């Protein structure tokens, strides 16, 4: 992305305004501060791509601005302006991390040249960080496991979409891995070294969701004791992942559309907008077309988001990936639990898992495998072992008394099952609590009473 946001800092307002006007003529977006304190406040609001600051200022000087800028981003280029040929202070600024210094009075073309160099330096830093990250870390794309045709096509789509900067709408059932796909798209883009910020639009009421996304000013509503930057600001330069976009309240859809069109947000309670540079990645498991027909989702927003549609297939459409996924999840679980005895699932069990319906998709398979790893006491888990470990399979074989007088209270059955799980975990109540997804204190309380 082009780095064109420059913060100009000088305690002479005329100097700031003159530079800002000249830079606007050259397609820069100037941010103006008449003093160091105001500059630091502005950097708290929006981090620029380059800073140009005078060195000698009252109260908060250019060295303070330099230090504060580098504290917020160690790679932020800062050009220092010095008067009277104050070489000693200029050298000190360079040693402290400044990008370049210029002596006043200076020629505007010279400043513009160094600004362009700083901007290019900034762009290359971002690209290098993204390149290093792709080579250093295990690629997110590697975590999208599967050799089936739908998954080969999905990975190709992710790599292709990653090279663009358009909004993406990811469609797929719950549990298919839509957030992982969004992360992979982000990591494959030039924004990969900048923030990836996820939020679930269905998890918050409308007023809180607006504040989370756009931020708010102090006193904007009851309880807003301090100002807060929203997730759009947090994601500036990177990607914002709006999960369950189909559940976004209708009144917020219009605000989101404006952000997509203008790249500006207005915090709740604020009079002015601020620019943001954010790529929108959205996901839903809902039938958006049905929502549009029912006037529950804006059609214009749908078309802005659906520039590149990406579909994540359900597990039942790629059953041949179940063995590979199972192996992947076993390895992940073994990494977290190095003392587990399990090494693999035998062929009969893998065949059984391939033919299960998997309504919860990959997430459900992962949970089943993690339960097997937590409870298994053998290196190779068979189908018979599994039937004793998985409640979903147990339910099919469970029988209960037909006489109402012989039925047991739920509490009694719960305690019996907890005892059984603790026994399977060799008495390790913490491990049993992980399997049961409850607090260990619940096990102690129920079994010790």
Topology:
Elements: E1 5-9, H1 13-24, E2 29-33, H2 36-45, E3 50-54, H3 62-72, E4 78-82, H4 87-95, E5 100-103, H5 108-136, H6 149-162, E6 168-171, H7 178-187, E7 196-200, H8 206-214, H9 231-234, E8 239-243, H10 250-262, E9 264-265, E10 274-275, E11 279-284, H11 288-293, H12 299-305, E12 308-311, H13 322-336, E13 344-345, H14 347-354, H15 361-375, E14 380-381, H16 383-389, H17 391-397, H18 410-424, H19 429-436, H20 440-448
Parallel strand pairs: 1-2, 1-3, 3-4, 4-5, 6-11, 6-12, 7-8, 8-11, 13-14
Antiparallel strand pairs: 9-10
Helix pairs in contact: 2-3, 6-7, 13-15, 15-19, 18-19, 19-20
Secondary structure class reads alpha/beta
Strand arrangement, major sheet:
2-1-3-4-5
Uncertain segments: 394-398
Average the pLDDT over all residues and give the rounded result. Answer: 85
Verbal overview:
Helix 2 (36-45) runs parallel beside helix 3 (62-72), helix 13 crosses helix 15 and helix 19 (429-436) crosses helix 20 (440-448). The protein has helices at residues 13-24, 36-45, 62-72, 87-95, 108-136, 149-162, 178-187, 206-214, 231-234, 250-262, 288-293, 299-305, 322-336, 347-354, 361-375, 383-389, 391-397, 410-424, 429-436, 440-448; strands spanning 5-9, 29-33, 50-54, 78-82, 100-103, 168-171, 196-200, 239-243, 264-265, 274-275, 279-284, 308-311, 344-345, 380-381. It is elongated. A 5-stranded parallel beta sheet has the order 2-1-3-4-5, with helices on both faces. A 5-stranded parallel beta sheet has the order 7-8-11-6-12. The chain has a two-stranded antiparallel ribbon with strand order 9-10. The longest helix is centred in the first third of the chain and has 29 residues, at 108-136. The protein is α/β, with parallel strands linked by helices and 449 residues long.
């Amino acid at each position: 992305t082009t780095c064109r946001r420059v913060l100009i800092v000088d305690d002479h307002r005329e100097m700031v305004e003159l530079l800002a006007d000249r830079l606007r003529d050259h397609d820069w977006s100037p941010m103006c501060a008449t003093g160091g304190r105001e500059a630091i406040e502005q950097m708290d609001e929006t981090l620029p791509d380059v800073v140009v600051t005078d060195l000698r200022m009252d109260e908060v000087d250019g060295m303070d601005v330099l230090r504060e800028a580098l504290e917020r981003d160690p790679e932020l280029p800062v050009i220092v302006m010095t008067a009277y040929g104050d070489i000693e202070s200029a050298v000190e600024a360079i040693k402290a991390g400044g990008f370049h210094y210029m002596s006043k009075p200076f020629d505007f073309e010279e400043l513009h040249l160094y600004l362009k160099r700083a901007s290019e330096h900034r762009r290359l830093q971002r690209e290098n960080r993204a390149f290093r990250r792709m080579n250093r870390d295990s690629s997110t794309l590697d975590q999208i496991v599967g050799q089936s045709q739908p998954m080969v096509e999905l990975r190709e789509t992710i790599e292709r979409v990653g090279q663009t900067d358009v909004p993406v709408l990811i469609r797929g059932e719950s549990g298919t891995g839509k957030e992982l796909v969004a992360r992979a798209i982000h990591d494959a883009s030039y924004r990969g070294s900048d923030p990836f910020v996820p939020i679930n639009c269905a998890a918050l009421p409308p007023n809180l969701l607006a504040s989370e996304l756009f931020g708010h000013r102090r006193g904007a509503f009851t309880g807003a004791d301090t100002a807060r930057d929203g997730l759009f600001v947090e994601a500036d330069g990177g990607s914002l992942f709006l999960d369950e976009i189909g559940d976004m309240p209708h009144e917020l859809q219009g605000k989101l559309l404006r952000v997509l069109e203008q790249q500006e947000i207005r915090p709740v309670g604020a009079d002015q907008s601020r620019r943001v540079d954010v790529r929108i990645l959205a996901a839903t498991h809902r039938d958006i077309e049905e929502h549009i027909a029912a006037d529950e989702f804006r059609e214009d927003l749908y078309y802005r988001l659906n520039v590149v549609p990406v579909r994540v297939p359900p597990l039942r459409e790629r059953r041949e990936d179940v063995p590979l996924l199972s192996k992947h999840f076993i390895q992940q679980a073994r990494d977290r639990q190095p003392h587990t005895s399990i090494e693999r699932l035998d062929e009969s069990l893998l065949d059984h898992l391939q033919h299960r319906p998997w309504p919860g998709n990959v997430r459900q398979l992962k949970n089943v495998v993690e339960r097997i790893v937590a409870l298994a006491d053998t290196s190779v888990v068979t189908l018979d072992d599994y039937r004793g470990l998985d409640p979903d399979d147990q339910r099919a074989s469970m029988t209960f008394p037909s006489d109402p007088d012989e039925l047991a209270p739920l509490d009694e059955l719960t305690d019996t099952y907890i005892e059984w799980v603790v026994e399977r975990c060799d008495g390790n109540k913490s491990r049993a609590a992980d399997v049961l997804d409850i607090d260990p204190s619940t096990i102690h309380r129920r079994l010790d009473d």
